[in-house]
From TrEMBL:
Native source organism of the sequence: Streptacidiphilus cavernicola
Domain DDH: 64-204
Protein EC: 3.1.3.7
InterPro entries: DDH_dom, DHH_sf, DHHA1_dom, Oligoribo/pAp-PDE_c-di-AMP_PDE
Name by which UniProt lists this protein: Bifunctional oligoribonuclease/PAP phosphatase NrnA
Keywords: Hydrolase
Pfam family, one: DHH
DHHA1 domain location: 285-367
Name of the top EC class for this enzyme: hydrolase
GO molecular function, one term: 3'(2'),5'-bisphosphate nucleotidase activity
Taxonomic placement: Bacteria, Bacillati, Actinomycetota, Actinomycetes, Kitasatosporales
């Protein structure tokens, strides 16, 4: 017979690994783990009703997400687009990049015929809804049009969202904007179909790191269950989102890993691992800048370092810094010292200094929190 556990003692998953910190010990805004995971508990009927009324009376609706869209931003906007179109509403989906390029990793998203360039959005939209846009400046070319809209609805889950619209549906406890779109569709009476579900699944999977991050709750899995029930091909979505890269990317990654430095004394002894990607590497291997956004997720695996920094060179020689932390340091503060910002566990900045000087400044600002 297997060894007995003392009553009430949780099973030990792995022997010889330090205990995990409390899931809520960091500074990240997240729901209380003990509440059963109400994913959108912050919003009430009176928040939704004026938005439903505005959609019901609009002759056309513009659905827009942030520039350089990720799976949550574009998936949310397209899911809403499919749903509103099914109600007979004229919809346009857009984002304010020129040229407007859907990332290759999101090429599978359905209903991209709804996409129009920013120039095709009216100068003064009747009803414009933003998805996953934490700051009005993240609308790029669409900022002025959004600000001129008669009705501007903001649907978002960023804690940093200061609220820039006439109607705010912002829930920092939601793990993805797509979760709020699911609620919107439920209130509109639009059933989930496989196209909508593909968009929403992409959004939720993207922002939860495939259901790994701490904001994932029982309600998140309940939503995933309803999405899978439509027949969505989560296996193919996951392969495209997580497990597909060009060979050129692998070569850029290899060079970045070869260049990585472990600095165990940084962050008051908690450790920093850092590397950088010269623009010439991207050119040499035919890799686009957006393809290396996930490179930091490999570098940050280093168990010896609490903090991770990846510097990505732009054609003009400036450096885009991305940083990550595991809960014991606040990288938003360190990035803030270099003129950037973000979350305690994920933040960034832009530097016009050389690599060594930029790393030195970041290191100096990094403190155990
Ligand atoms: Mn999001």
């Amino acid at each position: 017979m297997a060894a007995q556990q003392a009553a009430g003692t949780p099973a030990t998953l792995v022997v010889g690994v330090p205990a995990l910190p409390s899931p809520r010990s960091g500074k990240a805004v997240a729901p209380d783990l003990t509440d059963g995971g109400t994913a959108h508990g912050g919003l009430v009927d009176s928040d939704w009703e004026p938005v439903l009324a505005a959609i019901g009376s609009a002759s056309s609706v513009d659905l827009v997400c942030h520039v350089l869209p990720d799976g949550d931003a574009l998936g949310s906007a397209l899911a809403a687009g499919i749903a509103l179109r099914s109600l007979g509403i004229e919809v346009r989906v857009s984002f304010g990049d020129d040229p407007q390029i859907v990332p290759a990793s999101l090429g599978f998203l359905p209903a991209q015929d709804l996409l129009v360039p920013a120039s095709a959005v009216p100068d003064r939209p009747e009803l414009l809804i933003t998805f996953d846009v934490a700051d009005v400046r993240r609308l790029g070319l669409l900022q002025a049009k959004a600000e001129a809209a008669e009705t501007l609805v903001v649907i978002d889950h960023h804690a940093s969202n200061g609220g820039f619209g006439t109607h705010l549906l912002i829930d920092p406890a939601a793990p993805a904007t797509a979760v709020l779109v699911d609620e919107l569709l439920r209130r509109l009476g639009v059933p989930l179909d496989v196209s909508i579900a593909t968009c929403l699944y992409t959004g939720v999977a993207t922002d939860t790191g495939s259901f790994r991050y701490s904001a994932t709750t029982p309600a998140t899995h309940e939503l995933a269950s309803r999405l899978l029930a439509t027949g969505v091909r989560h296996d193919l979505i996951s392969r495209r989102l997580w497990d597909t890269q060009s060979f050129g990317y692998l070569k850029v990654l290899a060079a970045a890993l070869d260049r990585a430095v472990l600095d165990p004394e940084a962050a008051d002894g908690l450790g920093l691992v850092w590397t950088w990607v010269p623009w010439a590497d991207l050119v040499a291997h035919g890799v686009l800048p957006e393809e290396i956004e996930g490179l930091i997720d490999v570098v940050r695996k280093a168990s010896e370092a609490e903090a991770t920094l990846v510097l990505k060179e732009d054609p003009d020689g400036s450096l885009r810094g991305s940083s990550r932390a595991k809960g014991a340091v606040d990288v938003a503060a360190a990035c803030g010292a270099l003129g950037g910002g973000g979350h305690a566990y994920a933040a960034g900045f832009t530097s016009h200094d050389p690599v060594a000087e930029t790393v030195a400044r970041f290191r100096a600002a990094l403190r155990a929190g």
